[in-house]
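Our consortium's second objective concerns turning raw sequence data into structural hypotheses that experimental partners can test. To show how far this objective has progressed, the report includes one record in full. It was chosen at random from the queue rather than selected for favorable results. The single chain below, 436 residues long, was entered without modification.
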Amino acid sequence: MEQPDAGPAKWSIKEKLLFCFSFIFFVLYIFLNPNHIVPYTDYLNKVYIQPFADLLAWLTKDILHIVNPAIEFYNSTLDTVFGYLALLFIFLVAIAGSIIWLVIDRRAPNYLRLYEALTILVRYYLAFTMISYGSFKIIKLQFLSLSPVMLLQTYGSTTPRQFMWSFVGYSAGYNYFIGSFELIAGFLLFFRRTSMLGSLIALGILANVTVLNFSFDINVKLYTIVLTMMALFLLSKQITRLFNFFFLDKIVYPSVDPPIRFKKKWRNTALQVSKYAFILYTIVFGLRANYYRSLQDRDGPVKPPLYGIYDVTTFIRNRDTIKPLTTDAARWNKLIISAPKGNASIMLMGGSFKTFLFKIEPAKKKIGMYTKSDTSDKYTFTYDLSKDSVLVMRGKWHKDSLEIKLKQYDFNKFPLINHRFRWILDHYYIVRDKTQ
């Protein structure tokens, strides 16, 4: 393989140390956090990841004596105790490994070939990650549309994460916008000549995502920090050219960054074919998997039977009609059926929610209800749904017999649902804003 003509012939100790640290850190992180980038490799990933997870769990429990439920769940992309310890472990190994590396191989003038290989690895990892998240947004798998439960919750009853997820998920247009730029950044990163532009776009997106994660306490702060470091690493070689162009208004010449080439032509052809085949395979099967996941999602075309929000108009308990008093914590106020897998919530008169798993059998006109924590505690109801969207449920609730009459709520009555984009502000909003 020919030596690429880039960079000085002899690196300083500082440059070699920074490279060795970056090489070990990024390779270890990518190796231990493949993040489902290559389809159908999850089983292979578990073969080598599980021993590392067991080692880290042993160090955490027996050496550091840290007791935390999250230690049992290995995923260093999440902000768990395990995630921080895994990242710390990779960081310390990178420091120790880089020092040992330089001591053993101190005569090497540079690591240009390894640098090119690391650049390609980081580019591809970041590219597939950006494409994955971009497709999540466009197919609406990451930020879902507002569920019936979220439409009924108040701002104060949501967590910062739920609040951010709701306002981003509300706008399909914003998801298409940010998702498209993530896809563009990912595609640009695949190619050497456009990788700098892809890195700049990715850096802007990742910086914004990182700030959102910190501002709204999203639990993937560690992951976005590392991804931002990857974008900065890819731009580090071009930092002088970028500074001269943007700040000093100097002429910037094309970078000397030739691709890796073999002496034999057939090897170069095989390398190119393998590259495009791998990219195509990963993208096609990744998008295919995301599409089928979207069909199972509550934003997909398939909705559960009785989907919607139902106001309780009559609540009869043991043949006594119970008035809708806010002091009655046992009386139902609304029934919300939202997720295709059977999740449903009961909103009580006091405003609190109780979530159950619903199993609806339309042929038998039956509803089975139970909680995730105790599947043996089941409640069974029969139901009838009239043409005018009136639902009547009858069954046992604890020791009481219930007969509940409910009226389906029209989603178009929610301002968030019926509001449409306006180029021109109408009279109603001008008057309202002046009176507030």
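The partners drew two points from this record. The first strand starts at residue 308 and ends at 317. Residues 13-295 form one domain. Both points have been shared with the crystallography group to help prioritize constructs.
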